[in-house]
Prior knowledge:
homodimer, alpha/beta, Aspartate Aminotransferase, domain 1, Aspartate Aminotransferase, domain 2, 12 helices, 15 strands, 38% helix, EC 2.6.1.83 (chains A, B), DapL/ALD1 (chains A, B)
Amino acid sequence: MKINENYLKLEQSYLFSTIAKKVAEFTKQNPDVRVIRLGIGDVTRPLCPAVTKALHEATDEMGIKETFKGYGPEQGYAFLRQTISEYYKGHHTEVSEDEIFVSDGAKSDLGNILDIFDADNTVLIPDPVYPVYVDTNIMANRTICYMEANKDNNFLPMPDYAVDADIIYLCSPNNPTGAVYSKDQLKEWVDYALAKNAIILFDAAYEAFIGDETLPRSIYQIEGAKKCAIEFCSLSKTAGFTGTRCGYTVVPFELKCGDVALHSLWLRRQTTKFNGVPYIIQKAAAAIFTPEGQQQIKENIEYYKQNAALLTEALTELGMSFIGGEHSPYIWLMCKSGMTSWEYFEYLLQEAHIVGTPGSGFGKNGEGYFRLTAFGEREDVEEAIKRLKALK
Amino acid sequence: MKINENYLKLEQSYLFSTIAKKVAEFTKQNPDVRVIRLGIGDVTRPLCPAVTKALHEATDEMGIKETFKGYGPEQGYAFLRQTISEYYKGHHTEVSEDEIFVSDGAKSDLGNILDIFDADNTVLIPDPVYPVYVDTNIMANRTICYMEANKDNNFLPMPDYAVDADIIYLCSPNNPTGAVYSKDQLKEWVDYALAKNAIILFDAAYEAFIGDETLPRSIYQIEGAKKCAIEFCSLSKTAGFTGTRCGYTVVPFELKCGDVALHSLWLRRQTTKFNGVPYIIQKAAAAIFTPEGQQQIKENIEYYKQNAALLTEALTELGMSFIGGEHSPYIWLMCKSGMTSWEYFEYLLQEAHIVGTPGSGFGKNGEGYFRLTAFGEREDVEEAIKRLKALK
């Protein structure tokens, strides 16, 4: 028996475990100090009432013979896919319910989608980036090209026709930088993908944080995208589902490689290696898309965005350089005068007792940067701001 | 961009869709006839009260800031892995909580586990078999050897040292035949795997139906198995979780390929491509392993086993040849005098209005056989028996 040797090429992901270790050490030495965590991108607000109501009701259904549900469709129940299709219409995008695949989250689908592509494809990945894009391709031994995301391009790299890519990762609003592509910029990417016969894997996990009608919330708002893009969406940050697990992926019918529809390949992958999302979770997810649910989750998103606004206001006041924090829960901060990401991490932890994420953990272009998240409770954010100001 | 061409080698799985089509046609032509479905292996009894109570409580936790849960450990919460470890102790098996990975079901893990193995491995698969073993390996272009399961070996094929296999699938109690390996037989498989440096993927999804203390419910009851086997378990049939989605996979620490622990590879796979099972589902799963939960799920399992006993009693009375139905919800029936599986399907549908699954859908050795499931309501089973007896 032979293992997949590509796994041995993976770098150990020490980022969050190193952070946890350093914070634990600090807390041990300073047991009375209140540490404020703006590091991990995890939500803190509870599930909204529309969602918990749906969970209770669906649980009751599952406890009674007449309404009990066994195996459901692997692709997700029609009631949920229909509401998602309607949601797309709400931002002027036509996505048919049968193009939507309900999943347990964008992370699963972003990894599993690679199963339908040959190992012999060149992958184009921005740097810095969500580490899952890189690791899942190392596991399959694909050639990876990086595109530089830096201050010069506002962390929004654009196509380079000298590079021949087959699979292109785009994440907008971006994790970790919070940068958002405009429609014109995405149009350039769609044109490039069509010209190169490449596919765009579009990670839209943070689309619900976009507050500007002119910015695209879906790549399908761009003409031609249905012929070259798969879109990954998540309810994790949209509705506080990081521990409840539900997302959806759109594979348009028009998306083909020669005669083969990628939709049929993904359907085959999902029906063979997946058995769908729990019925009660799908009922909970559907509740998010009701008018009541939308109202309630918007309140939570606004709460986080208000956190971000308070933070960016303070950073501006302090004369610090940053991007993000407007259509994103992430603020991408340039470290204090010439500090490396980890030096700045130590500095903030020791001097202000604030935990963030060193940008270098997301790629080489992240060096000298630092990610703060706007998730968390208001009083913690206000206290963090006080401490940042006192540092000055 | 190139697709994974292996997907084009997959045969379309027409089995259950063909059945559905034929039943729909029959129902259209005979709208007043009550068709009894003993075809698909799906549970019908509702979730037990211990489980729905846990779901309600966990939902309440998720609706309150103080007890809300965001991202959990990808491997599953310790509270659940501990109870599963205790459950193993109950059938005299030592499995550490850290060797257990909680998942959304055995189907996902049986497919995904292949990611940690090289494509260049020879796979040994029984015929007939659960089609997922075959399809997931075709997707990765692995060489597949089949082992014959037939009347001569009571549908329990044994190792052949002339065959060099790297990855071996065993399913006991078996789907579709209901056959169960004894400890001595499994010991032969473990010895073979150790001699060949092969790995056994042991599908124990139906272990809870074993009623005989001397039959192994886990491959780890066999000495040496921890050095050569991964075990896949499911709560789908055990606790009616087909629509609630939770299972667990055991990767022992001792299981190695050279210096590399497979546990570390699977942990890396899961942390990179999976984000864990919903918190509320894990709380529901933990409730199954409480004394109250065990009592309640055993009542459901006994209900299905009583269905099976009524069916096998009737088949015996009718002089029909079959196996299974004792430690399994499946009865594997020899078709009436020389009929093919599909001929018998038509015969039973037209003459008795009973739907089963043609054995040929599970592999060439399934030809001439027919699978009946014991899932369903008692009155349906009793009516089916009446009709079978009237056919004679």
